[in-house]
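Subject: design request, 433 residues
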């Protein structure tokens, strides 16, 4: 009898787990990848920026895993809504949770919930066409916008805001999102870091891209680009050099302006009915290395604040969860008997797509060692269980129907290779037609 494993979530962690199971297992294995959306690839589809087409093409590798005879994709099946942990443990020999990190971290400052104060998770979902977010959700009618955080997600968000809709036309951005971007009133974008250039989380390649924007001048204040000390890793030295070169150049009058700020922390989002400003406080590091305020304040006249301060995982019903690390406690991927975890849910929301490959391989090594020579759960039975609950999973072939509809839409609009369909209904129509 084959080893039956359920992988929950079809982002990079889930798919690399399926691949590692097939590659590492000495005995025959069958893997079901259960995914709450009708579409696979997680953040590769709904996170990686639309203009980063070469990174998006990792999907071409991931698809080959889903096409293996030992692997089956079951879209539209949610752990916690359609199936429980108990259902899975009675249908499979083991379960691997790979549900990522779906929500934003909070700033915990006054005004955070005002209309116009937006989590980067929602904004990214919007321009990536995630079905959880309405494509009409955002109107970019403020001339000034602040983006809080200096990580790679903040850089993605800034780039999308700074580019023209013409520059994004060939991407897969949903068409009504592209129209909103075309109507954008944004003239100034402030990207705000609470520490110095040497502490910024963005990577050099991503930072450099901002300096190449055709539609925006990038500005850094010379006094904020000063860095004490020289003994930094190469990546950081590279960041500092780029930022200091921007501090030394004059704007050339491009239609938009990006101000990259350092040593400023948000203390209040101002406004009554909606965001009218962002109050910042200058910071320094305490002797213990903590960020502390200096009592010097500044207000940015922004109508929108995008909070890009990191993602976090949400607990899965019936699965252990640590509220302090916001991850599933595990030992080399083992959670409890026959339950495992991989990806962002295992180690937190950091690292690039490839990091999930070695991470998944570790979890699978643990799983296979634990289950070697053990008893097997007789007959899967998940199909009958889902049918009894009137849940009809989206198959891999049906997902390909969505892909076809997306490339037909792109053709009809005279855009690039594909254009994302807006909304769950449209996707389900495409896969069932
Ligand atoms: C905005 C953004 C841009 C990024 N860009 C890059 C980049 O350019 N290059 C790079 O190398 N890395 C990038 N990363 C990092 C990379 O995306 C992550 O390392 C990777 O996606 C994490 O993989 P994961 O499988 O753990 O999570 P995810 O990719 O989030 O996959 C989790 C999957 O689980 C599904 N799921 C959730 N809950 C359930 C449930 N209850 N039942 C069933 N399914 C469920 C979700 O729908 C999703 O498909 C980016 C991250 C973000 C946030
Ligand atoms: N192209 C790519 O390769 C790519 C693209 C996107 C994402 N990713 C990866 O995905 C992961 C997640 O990226 P991310 O940008 O969401 O997270 P991140 O790298 O952790 O960056 C979060 C940023 O938010 C700041 N921050 C946190 N709390 C704050 C607060 N209360 N007030 C002000 N600022 C605050 C952090 O500053 P402090 O450092 O001071 O805490 C940091 O600058 C990263 O590993 C990233 O590299 C990669």
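Subject: RE: design request

Done. Sequence follows.
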């Amino acid at each position: 009898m084959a080893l039956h494993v359920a992988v929950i979530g079809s982002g990079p962690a889930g798919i690399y787990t399926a691949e590692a199971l097939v590659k590492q297992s000495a005995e025959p294995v069958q893997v079901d990848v259960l995914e709450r959306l009708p579409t696979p690839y997680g953040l590769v589809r709904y996170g990686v920026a639309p203009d980063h087409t070469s990174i998006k093409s990792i999907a071409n590798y991931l698809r080959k895993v889903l096409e293996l005879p030992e692997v089956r994709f079951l879209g539209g099946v949610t752990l916690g809504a359609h199936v429980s942990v108990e259902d899975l443990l009675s249908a499979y020999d083991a379960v691997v949770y790979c549900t990522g990190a779906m929500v934003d971290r909070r700033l915990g400052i006054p005004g955070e919930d005002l209309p116009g104060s937006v989590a980067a998770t929602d904004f990214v979902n919007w321009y990536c066409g995630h079905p959880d977010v309405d494509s009409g959700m955002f109107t970019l009618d403020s001339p000034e916008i602040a983006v809080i955080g200096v990580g790679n997600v903040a850089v993605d968000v800034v780039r999308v805001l700074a580019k023209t809709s013409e520059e994004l036309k060939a991407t897969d951005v949903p068409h009504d999102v592209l129209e909103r971007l075309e109507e954008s009133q944004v003239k100034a974008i402030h990207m705000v870091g609470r520490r110095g250039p040497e502490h910024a989380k963005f990577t050099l390649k991503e930072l450099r891209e901002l300096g190449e924007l055709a539609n925006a001048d990038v500005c850094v204040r010379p006094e904020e680009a000063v860095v004490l000390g020289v003994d930094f890793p190469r990546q950081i030295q590279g960041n500092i050099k780029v930022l200091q070169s921007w501090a030394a150049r004059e704007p050339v009058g491009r239609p938009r302006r990006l101000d990259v700020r350092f040593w400023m922390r948000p203390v209040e989002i101002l406004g009554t009915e909606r965001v009218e400003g962002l109050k910042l406080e200058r910071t320094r590091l305490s002797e213990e290395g903590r960020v502390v305020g200096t009592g010097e304040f500044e207000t940015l006249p922004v109508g929108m604040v995008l909070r890009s301060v990191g993602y976090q995982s949400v607990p899965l019903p019936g699965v252990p969860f640590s509220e302090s690390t916001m991850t599933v406690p595990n030992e080399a991927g083992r959670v409890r008997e026959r339950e495992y975890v991989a990806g962002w849910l295992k180690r937190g929301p950091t690292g690039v797509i490839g990091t999930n490959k070695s991470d998944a391989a570790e979890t699978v090594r643990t799983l296979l060692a634990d289950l070697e020579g053990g008893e097997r759960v007789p007959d899967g039975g998940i199909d009958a269980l889902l049918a009894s609950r009137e849940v009809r999973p989206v198959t891999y072939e049906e997902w390909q129907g969505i892909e076809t509809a997306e490339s037909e839409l792109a053709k009809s609009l005279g855009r690039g290779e594909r254009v994302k369909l807006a909304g769950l209904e449209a996707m389900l129509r495409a896969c069932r037609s």
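Residues 42 and 306 are 22 Å apart (CA to CA).
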